[in-house]
């Protein structure tokens, strides 16, 4: 029974206990017995217990840890969270049918003499120790009504497991029970299955000496395993008053070590089966086995050793029932190990024996009937086992019994069982198989007279089935069963066959739902009845045939009635589906109902037999026809009006077609209103849709034309002004300078745009600015021509300095001298185009070099902050000077091919530095640029952020910043480093929406140069920015019909609009910068009594205001 709350017994006080979180906390005791009845007061000597109900692991752990709680009731399935030691002296878990998932954790009892209980519980996923296991002394654990599945059910090396009720275990790794004592209480039902494969990992294992198994009255123990089913150490004891069923697939059923003993008490049953092909099935080593009167002892072995082995005493008491079988042809039934054994064998029903290798024969090798009292000594465990000192009350047994040759021996009820009565089932002339029941495993012979017509063996269930040839009617067939030298017969007379009747009967019966034959099956149709009729026609017996025909006629009648009902159902469905809601009483037909649907329904009515059903359906169909005729007439009228309205609408558009998406110049509001009046005359709303859509489009185009007429001239003026402005620097004529891209073509294009302007004042101003541009272009073109002449003159003189008049020859003419070069230099200096001048100067410098001395310079990279430029030189260098920002000054100190030039501390990175070498004639023979050694620097300035709110970490940077790195530390102190983001054009940005959620996060940004050098580190400032938005809407009154749009004003943070018309919500409209709004509603608001509201929302969708719109009719 499930317990609720805190229970108390046997004490004048109860401990008030509260389960808080995962810990059971106890408070001060309080007196709670003032109102208890006398029965409760009389129980003061009972052991007090305290209980709690748990539904989570935290609660269960708290209850297990609390020394005062004795009983724990589960209120849900629970998974154990961790291995837990239980120090209490008593702890009972009542499962209430729930599951306790060990999750491969343990509950361990740690106190000597502790008592535990697992009740009404399913236990899964245990380790090889189980739940409530322990190695403390004298533990006593009870499992009652437990279903277990795990690696092992329980391990109690020094304790006792008590089983009550029904307990099952499927142990997947090791033993089911491994401990000192296993006690199975009266009436308990126990089933153990183990998957372990090693011989000694037995489902029931007594780990140390003096262990044992006790099975109570009417208790049942069933064990299945690959290992030996029961394995015990020295002095192990088995005592049974109940039923034990053991089976090992590969090893022994019971193995007890030295001095073990087994006691099978009156009323007990042992069935032990062993698959071991070498060892015994049941062994007490040098111990004893006692089978008392009323006990049943049945053992089966497959080993080369004796099936039952003992070493002290083997007693089969008078009144006991025993059967010992060794299926191995080399193994005997009995044997001893380590010491000879005294065998006492008594049977009031005699004893039967089978020689080795014949144990499966139904007849024993020898039978010793009547009362048998025998006693002898055994020595040996193989088939060479010998008996000595044999004495018995049966002289034949004294002279013939040989233990070494005996593979099976039975006594008691196993020897006295009489053969079962043989039966043979009815045979007819069509039979080819004889069946019946005989003694299980008996040999069965079938004879027709004296002729054997078949033979076989009865199965374990006694049933036999033997093939025979067909026999003539009237033949007597006898079945004879032989077992254990006993014979039993049965005879039947072959009857004439009824195969034709049976086939027909099966076919007819299959038409009906049951034997009452009051209804046919849903699958029965005319084809099935016709097939059955064909079989009935073949029946020869007239009486049987008449009975079959009578049943078949009944089936035909039921099918006819069923078919007529189906026709009525079909007709009824067809008629109803013509009407709205499938109900003729609605007096309205569906939109989908047409003449074909009515004609099809008429056909289903015509197929009915005359009667009231047919009459009523015809009346409903006639109603549908009348409604369809009326609808068709209205549809024809609407089609005619649609043609009129269609013509009126088409006349509004260019080429008389809405597809042109352009209205005629003659289309005005009166024309549109007249077309609307024609559309309104159509009754069918569906016919109006396309027409109304086209008319609404015409209205939109007319509104656009009216609205854009004044805008066209403005657009022409803007285009002309833009074209004129773009001719000038900074797009402004007041700059008095045209762009380098300004050409005659761009001026002509601007002139065309000015010509399109109609406003004379605007046009004049534009023309004045264009004329200015034309004047500037003319002046520019004249200057360009003069520059071209200077360039051509300089080019000619420079080219003539070289062989073949081409600098590409890389050789000057013999006539080229310094005077010629100076003259060329004078012409190059007059060129103003910097690009052309540079090209000319380059070629001229080449000529200078060709007539000058030779020399080279190699400059070391200059480090900012130092004061000297150094390097090396070679060739005809006479002196070296510095050109700083185009100004030469000073001379370097030269020493053995190296030089040093003192520049002082003022050099800046953005300055242009060249070292220039001259020969002794003062000619420049080398010029090299001074490169700066790379020294990176930079800073970042992150913007403040609002979180939540901002999606990016951003800011600006200076210097050599190439990439950034972001570190975010959350409230728990966990830091995460992110790389990425974009760094360009003096700004950086890093997407952080999914990485930072709290204003308490700490965000640090680090800046690096291109080679990973850290340049700067900054922390981002975070502010909580809670934005409060508000706003209002004021709609203008509307005139319907008339107004095509809803207008009004908004204020505050209003960003979007929604209009609701008769419950339908429309989003859209536009809000201008001056706070006015417009929402097109021509296709949405149709009547004066429409219910219209307008609502405004901020940019994140928050509702700010909602107002009802006033709708008024037009004034007359």
Automatic annotation (TrEMBL):
Residues 500-561, 567-630, 642-704, 716-779, 791-850 form the Pesticidal crystal protein Cry1Aa domain. The keyword Protease does not apply. Residues 422-494, 855-931, 938-1024, 1031-1112 form the Bacterial Ig domain. Residues 545-572, 688-722, 763-796 form a coiled coil. Residues 1-34 form the signal peptide. It comes from the Bacteria. Keywords: Coiled coil, Signal. It holds the Pfam family Endotoxin_C2. This is Bacterial Ig domain-containing protein. It comes from Listeria booriae.
């Amino acid at each position: 029974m499930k317990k609720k709350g805190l229970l108390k017994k046997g004490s004048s006080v109860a401990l008030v206990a509260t389960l808080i979180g995962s810990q059971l906390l106890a408070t001060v005791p309080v007196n709670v017995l003032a109102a208890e009845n006398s029965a409760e007061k009389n129980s003061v000597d009972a052991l007090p217990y305290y209980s709690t109900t748990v539904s989570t692991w935290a609660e269960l752990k708290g209850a297990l840890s609390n020394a005062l709680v004795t009983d724990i009731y589960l209120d849900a399935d629970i998974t154990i969270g961790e291995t837990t030691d239980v120090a209490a002296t008593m702890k009972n878990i009542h499962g209430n049918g729930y599951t306790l998932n060990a999750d491969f954790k343990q509950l361990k009892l740690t106190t000597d003499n502790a008592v535990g209980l697992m009740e009404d519980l399913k236990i899964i996923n245990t380790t090889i120790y189980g739940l409530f296991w322990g190695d403390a002394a004298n533990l006593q654990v009870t499992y009652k009504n437990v279903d277990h599945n795990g690696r092992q059910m329980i391990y109690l090396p020094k304790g006792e497991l008590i089983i009550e009720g029904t307990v099952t275990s499927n142990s997947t790794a090791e033993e089911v029970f491994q401990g000192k004592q296993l006690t199975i209480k009266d009436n308990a039902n126990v089933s153990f299955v183990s998957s372990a494969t090693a011989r000694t990992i037995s489902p029931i294992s007594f780990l140390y000496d003096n262990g044992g198994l006790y099975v109570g009255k009417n208790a049942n123990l069933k064990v299945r395993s690959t290992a030996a089913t029961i394995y015990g150490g020295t002095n192990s004891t088995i005592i049974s008053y109940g039923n034990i069923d053991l089976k090992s697939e590969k090893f022994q059923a019971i193995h007890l070590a030295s001095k073990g003993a087994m006691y099978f008490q009156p009323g007990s049953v042992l069935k032990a089966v062993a698959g071991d092909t070498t060892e015994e099935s049941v062994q007490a080593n040098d111990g004893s086995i006692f089978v008392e009167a009323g006990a049943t002892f049945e053992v089966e072995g497959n080993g080369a050793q004796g099936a039952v082995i003992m070493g002290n005493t083997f007693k089969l008491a008078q009144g006991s029932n025993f059967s010992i079988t060794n299926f191995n042809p080399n193994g005997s039934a009995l044997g001893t190990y380590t010491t000879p054994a005294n065998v006492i064998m008594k049977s009031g029903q005699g004893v039967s024996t089978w020689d080795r290798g014949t144990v499966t024969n139904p007849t024993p090798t020898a039978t010793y009937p009547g009362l048998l009292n025998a006693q002898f000594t055994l020595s040996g465990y193989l088939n060479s086992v010998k008996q000595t000192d044999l004495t018995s009350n049966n002289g034949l047994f004294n002279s013939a019994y040989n233990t070494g040759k005996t593979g099976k021996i039975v006594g008691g009820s196993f020897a006295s069982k009489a053969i079962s009565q043989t039966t043979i089932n009815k045979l007819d002339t069509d039979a080819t198989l004889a069946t019946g029941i005989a003694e299980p495993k008996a040999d069965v012979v079938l004879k027709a007279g004296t002729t054997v017509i078949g033979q076989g063996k009865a199965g374990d269930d006694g049933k036999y089935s033997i093939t025979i040839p067909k026999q003539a009617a009237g033949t007597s067939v006898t079945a004879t069963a032989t077992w254990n030298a006993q014979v039993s017969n049965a005879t039947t007379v072959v009857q004439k066959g009824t195969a034709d009747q049976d086939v027909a009967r099966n076919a007819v019966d299959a038409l009906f739902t049951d034997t009452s034959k009051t209804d046919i099956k849903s699958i029965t149709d005319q084809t099935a009845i016709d097939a059955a009729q064909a079989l009935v026609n073949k029946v020869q017996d007239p009486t049987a045939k008449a009975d079959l025909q009578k049943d078949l006629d009944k089936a035909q009648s039921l099918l006819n009635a069923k078919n007529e009902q189906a026709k009525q159902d079909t007709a009824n469905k067809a008629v109803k589906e013509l009407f709205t809601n499938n109900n003729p009483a609605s007096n309205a037909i569906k939109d989908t109902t047409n003449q074909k649907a009515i004609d099809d329904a008429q056909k289903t009515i015509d197929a009915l037999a005359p009667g009231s059903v047919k009459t009523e359906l015809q009346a409903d169909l006639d109603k549908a026809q009348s409604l369809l005729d009326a609808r068709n007439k209205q549809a024809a009228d609407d089609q005619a009006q649609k043609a009129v309205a269609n013509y009126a609408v088409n006349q509004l558009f260019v080429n008389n077609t809405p597809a042109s998406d352009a209205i005629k110049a003659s289309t005005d509001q009166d024309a549109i209103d007249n077309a609307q009046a024609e559309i309104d005359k159509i009754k069918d709303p569906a016919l109006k849709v396309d027409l109304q859509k086209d008319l609404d489009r015409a209205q939109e185009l007319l509104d656009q034309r009216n609205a854009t007429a004044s805008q066209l001239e403005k657009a022409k003026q803007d285009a002309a002004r833009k074209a004129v402005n773009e001719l000038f620097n900074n797009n402004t004529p007041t700059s008095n300078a045209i762009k380098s891209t300004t050409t005659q073509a761009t001026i002509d294009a601007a002139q065309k745009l000015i010509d399109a302007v109609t406003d004379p004042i605007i046009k004049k101003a534009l023309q004045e600015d264009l004329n200015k541009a034309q004047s500037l272009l003319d002046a520019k073109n004249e200057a360009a021509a003069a520059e071209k002449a200077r360039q051509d003159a300089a080019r000619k003189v420079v080219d003539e300095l070289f062989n073949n008049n081409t600098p590409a020859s890389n050789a000057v003419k013999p006539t080229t001298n310094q005077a010629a070069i100076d003259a060329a230099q004078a012409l190059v200096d007059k060129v103003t185009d910097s690009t052309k001048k540079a090209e000319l100067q380059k070629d001229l410098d080449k000529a200078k070099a060709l007539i000058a001395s030779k020399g080279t310079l190699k400059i070391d990279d200059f480090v900012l902050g130092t004061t000297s430029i150094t390097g090396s030189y070679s060739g005809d260098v006479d002196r070296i000077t510095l050109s700083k920002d185009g100004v030469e000054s000073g001379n370097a100190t030269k020493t053995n091919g190296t030089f040093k030039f003192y520049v002082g501390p003022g050099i800046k990175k953005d300055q242009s530095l060249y070292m220039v070498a001259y020969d002794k004639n003062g000619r420049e023979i080398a010029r090299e640029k001074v490169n700066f050694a790379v020294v990176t620097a930079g800073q970042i300035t992150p913007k403040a952020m609002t979180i939540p709110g901002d999606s990016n970490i951003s800011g600006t940077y200076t210097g050599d910043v190439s990439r950034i790195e972001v570190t975010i530390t959350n409230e728990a102190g966990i830091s995460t480093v992110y790389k990425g983001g974009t760094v360009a054009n003096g700004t950086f940005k890093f997407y952080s929406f999914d990485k930072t959620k709290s204003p308490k996060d700490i965000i640090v940004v680090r800046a690096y140069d291109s080679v990973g050098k850290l340049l700067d580190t900054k922390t981002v400032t975070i502010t909580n920015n809670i934005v409060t938005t508000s706003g209002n809407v004021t709609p203008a009154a509307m005139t319907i019909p008339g107004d095509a749009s809803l207008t009004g004003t908004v204020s505050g943070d209003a960003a979007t609009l929604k209009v609701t018309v008769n419950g339908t919500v429309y989003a859209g409209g536009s809000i201008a910068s001056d706070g006015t709004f417009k929402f097109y509603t021509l296709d949405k608001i149709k009547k004066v009594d429409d219910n219209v509201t307008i609502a405004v929302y901020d940019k994140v969708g928050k509702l700010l205001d909602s107002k009802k719109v006033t709708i008024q009719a037009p004034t007359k």
